[in-house]
Amino acid sequence: MPARALNIPKTIEWVNGRVRLINQLKLPQKLEYIETDRYERVAEAIKKMEIRGAPAIGVAAAFALALAAVKSNAKTYGELLEDLRRAADALRKTRPTAKNLFWAIDRILKKAEELSGRDVNEVREGVLNEALRIAKEDEEANRKIGEYGERFIEDGDVILTICNAGSLATYYYGTALAPIYKAWEDGKKISVIALETRPYLQGARLTAFELKQAGIPVKIATDNAVGFILSRGMVNKAFVGADRITLTGHVVNKIGTYTLAVLAKKHGVPLYVCAPTSTIDPQTPIEKVVIEERPAEEVLFIGGYRIAPEGVGAIYYAFDITPPELVTAIITEKGVAEPPFNKSLPRLLGA
Amino acid sequence: MPARALNIPKTIEWVNGRVRLINQLKLPQKLEYIETDRYERVAEAIKKMEIRGAPAIGVAAAFALALAAVKSNAKTYGELLEDLRRAADALRKTRPTAKNLFWAIDRILKKAEELSGRDVNEVREGVLNEALRIAKEDEEANRKIGEYGERFIEDGDVILTICNAGSLATYYYGTALAPIYKAWEDGKKISVIALETRPYLQGARLTAFELKQAGIPVKIATDNAVGFILSRGMVNKAFVGADRITLTGHVVNKIGTYTLAVLAKKHGVPLYVCAPTSTIDPQTPIEKVVIEERPAEEVLFIGGYRIAPEGVGAIYYAFDITPPELVTAIITEKGVAEPPFNKSLPRLLGA
Predict the structure, then answer these.
(1) A64 Cα to chain B: minimum distance (Å)
(2) Assembly ipTM
(3) Taking phi first (over 0 means left), then psi (-120 to 50 degrees means alpha), and beta for anything else, what does residue A242 get?
(4) Which of A5, A326, B12, B274 has the maximum number of C-beta atoms within 10 A of its C-beta?
(5) Which domain holds residue A36?
(6) Are both B114 and B163 inside the same structural domain?
């Protein structure tokens, strides 16, 4: 039994036939929920980024399809499947590049197809249970990451992180923050420095929010302070998430991770990358990974405030690439991979 | 004669017995001037940071004392000196840690004291001329930095910079931006990437503004993109300013400079530090340099928008330290110092 109970609000929940999710656009000012029994409203929440983070979006899509099934007036299996497919089409359009979104939708549709010809209520129940299973599996994987990752955290550690690979990005418990939550539950004395993570400020807005909710001491810092913080020995571990990991151990993650990684290496601070094995891409070589460029406007405005003169553009790559020689270990729900990653990662995936 | 004429607005000017200065708090939204014949209004502008940047503040204080002298009703030398000293006291309270402010005030008072017993109008004129000389010397030093620094800039260069060590921080022409302006005047094809420089966003707000006014192509980038930008070969030179340089060649400058310097070195991009020799501190060893910590609120709010939850603090060191092994050259109005700096800097100061 953990020494302390973790007390952070659930990103998204299925409550009495309705979906309830935190409106992340209102954070950190207000903890405000959206509650609905309409799948269209969940689709809107994904599109407007009221919910974000790859695993959280997957769960939201699955729950949206469960709503579509439960609320459908279909009398026959065929009619129900048609309603589900219509909802799936609408959901696919919300964030067309989100891998987890498509994965969750396909999994729910496959389940419905497996129940071909069954009674409509049985299909409704099957779809809902599959959605709940997707959510539960996400939390279980994250708790495993927490257990494997906690071994690297000692009493008194001050941990550096960037972006939000926390509970808010998942169904519950987070990825990069999972080892921190596990250490906290086990009574270890730790604290966190969260880089604010421009342009969206996920570190300041979301990571600081959920750590504070959990009761874990946290301070934010501007991204450009990362070198000074590391050079002064103000942190002794770094934990980050990942959007994609190649079999060579190259880590694609939020812009700023590479800068952090170079400085961590220079100052002898270990860097742990936490992600479910679904993040590991066994096909694509790193040279083929395209780094998404996003609109300059997302850099040029902060909370409606224009920070640069009109007519001046901005460079905005959403991610960067951290090479394997800067990574101490990759922590997944199946275990920990250590260098050389081109050996340990295939072994982990095979396990 | 330069191939192109530089066309950037003057930070501060003496115009027909009045002081006219750009209200930098309104940038980049509006180019708005403050014009006054009252030294109290200039003091207020320094205090409210309507004007900032060490050399610019020095000139503003000198012009404020000139206003005090010109507008004084003193009939005798003694009365005039009393009025000047009262104005000096008020000015000293505006930014109590600004070195250039005190230096400029002391220089004007010394001038007035040298004219002891002269006719009041002669003293008024002497004070005004000394203030104009301080301004002129600043521009001359900056143009020298530009000439020495331009040698390192080639046609086609893309230059990385941080913060605003530009014309807006000086009377005219800037320090880190001086070689860029000189290269531009001489017709070289160059462009600039300005790191936005949180928390005050001097890069986005001020550097982008003045480069755009000059017609030099500029884009901004978030500070955390510095590693990615350098790793992709998007820039081939870096120019930064300095708040203090020790005789060992340690450079104290805006937070983020050290992070930039480590990444520049890693990717083989030369880093040039531009500053007048008055920035070189021949006394203090680097271990004794105290890095100013500023209020967390300055990180926690952007344009009135709170970016982190209430109750969460922030780390804000205003400066960091770049060690000499990361610096390619230090460019001053007296010439260029190259490694080893502990030999070249004393030589330069002696010159």
Answers:
(1) 30
(2) 0.93
(3) beta
(4) B274
(5) 12-142
(6) no
3-state DSSP assignment of residue A282: coil
DSSP B44: H
**CB neighbours (10 Å) of residue B303?**
12
Residue B229 at interface with chain A, using a CB cutoff of 8 Å: yes
For residues A164 and A27, the answer to whether their CB atoms sit within 8 Å is no
DSSP-derived secondary structure for B76-98: SHHHHHHHHHHHHHHHHTTSTT-
Cβ separation B259–A263 shorter than 8 A: yes
The per-residue pLDDT for B1 is: 58
Say how many Å lie between the first and final Cα of chain B, rounded. 28
**Per-10-residue mean pLDDT for chain A, 351 residues long?**
84 97 94 98 95 94 98 96 98 85 96 96 98 98 98 98 97 98 97 97 97 97 98 98 95 97 98 95 91 92 90 96 98 98 96 67
Contacts A–B by Cβ distance under 8 A? 201
> In this predicted model, what pLDDT tens digit does every residue of A154-164 receive, in sequence order?
999 999 999 99
> By CA distance, what is B312's nearest residue in A?
A219
A-chain CB neighbours of B227 within 8 Å are: 256, 258-259, 261-262, 320
Are B164 and B305 contained in the same domain? Answer: yes
Judged by CB atoms closer than 8 Å, whether chains meet at B309 and A27 is answered as: yes
Does a structural domain hold residue A85?
A: yes
Closest to A351 in 3D by CA, of A340, A338, A335: A335
pLDDT tens-digit readout, A312-334: 999 999 999 999 999 999 999 99
Beta strands in chain B, from DSSP E residues, in sequence order: 12-15, 18-22, 33-36, 158-162, 191-195, 218-221, 237-240, 244-246, 251-254, 271-274, 280-281, 301-302, 305-306, 313-315, 319-322, 329-332, 335-337
Show the tokens assigned to A99. 């891998």
CATH number for position B94 = 1.20.120.420
- Report the DSSP pairing between strands A280-281 and A244-246: parallel
Number of domains in chain B: 2
Is residue A295 less than 8 Å (CB to CB) from chain B?
Answer: no
pLDDT over 80 (residue B98) = no
Please name the helix (run of DSSP H) or strand (run of DSSP E) that holds residue A124, with its range, or none: helix A120-150
Residue A304, chain B, CB below 8 Å: the answer is: yes
Half-sphere exposure (CA, 13 Å, Cβ side) for B155?
3
Q: How far is B335 from chain A (nearest CA, A)?
A: 30
Q: Which of A142, A164, A187 is the last residue of a domain?
A: A142
Q: What is the mean pLDDT of chain A?
A: 95
Please indicate whether, in this complex, the C-beta atoms of A208 and B308 are within 8 angstroms of each other: yes
The span from the CA of A167 to the CA of A210, in Å, is 7
Q: Are B127 and B167 in contact (CB under 8 A)?
A: no
Of A213, A156, A214, the residue nearest A182 (C-alpha): A214
